[in-house]
Design goal:
- It is a single chain.
- This protein is of the alpha+beta class.
- It has 3 domains: 56 residues, no CATH class; 129 residues, no CATH class; 102 residues, Endonuclease, Chain A (3-Layer(aba) Sandwich), CATH 3.40.960.
- It has 13 helices and 12 strands.
- α5 crosses α6.
- The longest helix is centred in the first third of the chain and has 17 residues.
- The termini are far apart.
- The relative contact order is 0.07.
- The mean pLDDT is 86.
């Protein structure tokens, strides 16, 4: 090998190492022209450090989280992708990481210590993305997978973060999962997304039924107070309730208006409660408990 060829291979090696957060596979080293003896020599000299079989850290054994994710994916084959909770952390949808999740095609049977390997029929290139150079499932697939392992409150935050970051807005997410084959997490994600949004009338009827069961009288509806129209108002309690249709798709401008609205009512001495459509649909007992508790606290005031 000429000096020029050696310099070129060395440059290619370091480009690869930088791109992969300081890790490299045995196969990649062989493709670059490193023989088995050269690889073993570098291992013996402490220049390569084994992470998993056939995957090495270059230079030192201490590696970053991104390097460990990269090494995990590389150790599971060319079609492997970071997935589930690990992918959600990489996309910025959640912060809590626990172990490493990798998804592979259904026929893959290799095991790796410290890696949760998920086998999937139909894993293809359409689900592959790269973030920080790491092969990872696309945001929609990540949310579906996360729905099979995360808590409801974690998944709700992940949906909102995906919307805020421009990765998947809720309506596009709802449309996308309708075309998914049957898979763990789909049903839960559909439930939290709430299916088709209720009409204003449908949402109002559901909420009023809950309010009656909580012992509240019939409120005034769609009245103007402090310069804003409110959904439900009990003047004898000084209580306002806003029913937010489609909680996952409120723009920053709408959220700012909501804050100013609530602050105006608080300044006037009124109490405001907000319930999301998802709560009214799926948590009527919690809505009823909250209404009854707040109404019980406000009644002793003897408001006119």
């Amino acid at each position: 090998m000429t000096r020029k060829e050696l310099q070129r291979e060395t440059a290619e090696f370091w480009r690869l190492v930088r791109r992969q957060h300081g890790v490299v596979t045995r196969g990649q080293l062989l493709e670059l022209g490193f023989g088995s003896e050269a690889i073993e020599h570098r291992i013996a000299q402490g220049r390569l450090h084994r992470i998993w079989r056939g995957v090495y850290a270059v230079g030192r054994p201490e590696i970053s989280r991104e390097a460990r994710w990269t090494a995990a994916v590389l150790s599971c084959g060319r079609e492997a992708l970071l997935s589930h909770r690990s992918a959600a952390v990489l996309w910025g949808l959640t912060r809590k990481a626990a172990g490493i999740d990798v998804v592979v095609p259904a026929g893959f049977y290799r095991r790796r210590p410290g890696i949760r390997v998920h086998r999937r029929v139909g894993l293809d290139a359409k689900q592959r993305r790269y973030r920080a150079g790491i092969p990872v499932t696309d945001p929609v697939s990540t949310l579906v997978d996360f729905a099979s392992v995360g808590l409801d409150r974690e998944l709700e935050r992940a949906i909102n973060e995906a919307d805020r970051l421009g990765l998947a807005d809720p309506e596009a997410l709802r449309a996308a999962i309708d075309s998914f084959p049957r898979r763990r997490g789909l049903g839960r994600l559909r439930r939290l997304l709430g299916g088709e949004p209720l009409t204003d009338t449908g949402l109002e009827h559901r909420f009023l039924a809950i309010a009656r069961s909580a012992g509240l009288s019939t409120p005034e509806t769609q009245v103007w107070l402090n310069g804003y129209r409110v959904d439900f108002y009990w003047p004898q309690l000084g209580l306002i309730v806003e029913a937010d249709g489609w909680v996952y798709h409120r723009t920053p401008g709408e959220q700012g208006t909501d804050r100013r609205r609530d602050q105006a009512h608080t300044t006037a001495g009124l109490t405001t409660l907000r319930f999301a459509e998802e709560q009214i649909r799926h948590e009527p007992h919690e809505v009823r408990r909250t209404l009854a508790g707040v109404a019980g606290r406000l009644r002793p005031r003897g408001r006119p």
